[in-house]
């Protein structure tokens, strides 16, 4: 195996990006935000083709980044069956550690609403 991938898993608004950024600052392990990759996918949003292409692009970017580092933090909602295919492929190449991120559903919803309005909560927790 070429390195370790830490995948923060949780619903939208649970704090995955916030925690990934904190871990990067505190531990020096690069954090890869997948949102920038998913925004490049040109397929019909949320179709099976869109999801497969998105996970494929994320995997390629992880492979590219892991040539430069032996540890990487990334994130996923793990909300689609294709996630498990993606996870299996990663496990064939890397040591994968899953980290569950939870938050009360009403807090997740408020964070998503605030983010959609272009505002960020000052205190995410």
What does this structure look like?
The protein has one domain (4-116): P-loop containing nucleotide triphosphate hydrolases (Rossmann fold), CATH 3.40.50. The radius of gyration is 15 Å and the shape is globular. With 125 residues, it is an alpha/beta fold. α3 packs parallel to α4 (82-93). The chain has a three-stranded parallel sheet with strand order 2-1-3, sandwiched between helices. It contains five helices and three strands. The model has no long low-confidence stretch (mean pLDDT 90).
Order of helices and strands: EHHHEHEH
The biggest beta sheet, please? 3 strands, parallel
Distance between the termini: 35 Å
Name given to the CATH homologous superfamily: P-loop containing nucleotide triphosphate hydrolases
Structural class computed from helices and strand pairing: alpha/beta
Strand content: 5-15%
Strand-helix topology:
Layout (H helix, E strand, L loop, with lengths): L3 E6 L6 H12 L7 H4 L9 H18 L5 E6 L5 H12 L1 E6 L4 H12 L9
Parallel strand pairs: 1-2, 1-3
Helix pairs in contact: 3-4
Short description:
Helices cover 46% and strands 14% of the residues. The chain has 125 residues and is an alpha/beta fold.
List keywords for this structure.
Rossmann fold; 14% strand
């Amino acid at each position: 195996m070429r390195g370790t991938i830490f995948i923060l898993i949780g619903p939208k608004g649970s704090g995955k990006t916030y925690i990934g950024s904190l871990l990067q600052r505190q531990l020096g392990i690069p954090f890869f935000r997948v949102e920038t990759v998913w925004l490049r996918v040109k397929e019909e949003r949320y179709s099976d083709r869109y999801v497969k292409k998105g996970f494929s692009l994320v995997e390629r970017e992880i492979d590219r980044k892991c040539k430069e580092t032996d540890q990487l933090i990334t994130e996923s909602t793990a909300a689609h069956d294709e996630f498990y295919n993606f996870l299996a492929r990663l496990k064939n190449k890397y040591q994968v550690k899953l980290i569950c991120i939870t938050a009360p559903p009403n807090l997740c919803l408020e964070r998503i609403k605030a983010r959609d309005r272009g505002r960020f909560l000052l205190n995410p927790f």
